[in-house]
Write a structure and sequence with these properties.
By secondary structure, the chain is an alpha+beta fold. Helix content is 18%, strand content 36%. The protein contains 6 helices and 16 strands.
């Protein structure tokens, strides 16, 4: 009777862990609050961090208003606390995670032709000693910047197609075609691509490594289409979600960190230019 069920769905422990990954993916698709326990964070809209984060129009030099930021809570997981604050004189998002995992995310819709730069910054006080983002049981990170993309799900493997259908059943939305994360690794070299141990449709690009810059603000400008092609070997589709995530649930650790504003700069109508002025 169960011969047609893949082995990765027969193991209940692995299934529960996989469901957590699916729900994280679904969070970036903007699933309903009732089905996925999204907690609305109304105060974020008025905070310095939220006012400076989201989509950015380089021609008007103004943010593009869209949906509200929401904190996506995973069933059975403690909530990572994302609090707007002034850190070192700047509007920031102060983060505390104690054996916790949740994601702050924003639903967007940016066609691939309009994708430009991702700009973000973070400050980390300590790395997670036991973490390994390549190990499904130790996959925690002090900071992650997360981008979710639409695409042709007809190209999914059998496993990913089933995971997408399961996500749709649980959340009302299919699994994103691809999720790309910018991460700080404990030991892997900058430029390393780490596939999620549970689905290769979630991949992480290491942009900082090791303890040398702990306690310092680090700022990044990343070319989204170029990075996506490096990570997935193809051009990106429509950007459908963006967010930040700090998680320590697998290693049962405690992490304090801070994020500066997160923006996605739209490509100017007269062509894209890398603007490094701040």
């Amino acid at each position: 009777m169960f011969r047609c069920i893949p082995s990765f769905l027969r193991n209940w422990r692995r299934l529960l862990l996989t469901l957590s990954v699916l729900l994280i993916s679904g969070a970036l698709f903007g699933c309903s609050a009732t089905s996925t326990r999204i907690a609305e964070v109304s105060s974020f809209d008025q905070s310095d961090w939220a006012q400076s984060s989201g989509l950015f129009d380089p021609e008007t030099k103004q943010p593009v208003r869209s949906a509200s930021w929401t904190n996506f809570l995973l069933p059975g997981k403690k909530e990572t606390r994302y609090l707007p604050a002034i850190v070192d004189g700047r509007g920031a998002l102060q983060v505390h995670a104690e054996s916790a995992a949740s994601m702050l995310r924003l639903k967007v819709h940016v066609p691939a032709a309009d994708l430009g730069l991702a700009r973000f910054s973070w400050k980390v006080t300590d790395l997670i000693a036991a973490a390994d983002m390549g190990d499904r049981d130790l996959d925690d990170a002090p900071v992650r910047v997360v981008l979710a993309f639409d695409g042709d799900r007809g190209r999914f493997s059998v496993k990913n197609a089933m995971l997408s259908e399961l996500t749709h059943a649980l959340t009302g939305e299919p699994m994103p075609y691809a999720v790309m994360m910018y991460v700080w690794s404990k030991h892997r070299p900058v430029g390393t691509v780490i596939s999620s141990p549970r689905t290769d449709r979630i991949r992480k690009l290491v942009v900082e490594t090791g303890p040398a810059h702990l306690g310092q603000w680090l700022a990044f400008e990343r070319d989204i289409p170029r990075d996506f092609e490096q990570v997935f070997g193809e051009a990106p589709g429509t950007l459908i979600g963006m967010g930040v995530m700090t998680d320590t649930d697998n290693t049962h650790s405690i992490v304090h960190a801070a994020y500066g504003p997160l923006t996605v700069q739209l490509r100017p109508t007269n062509g894209f230019a890398l603007d490094k002025r701040h």
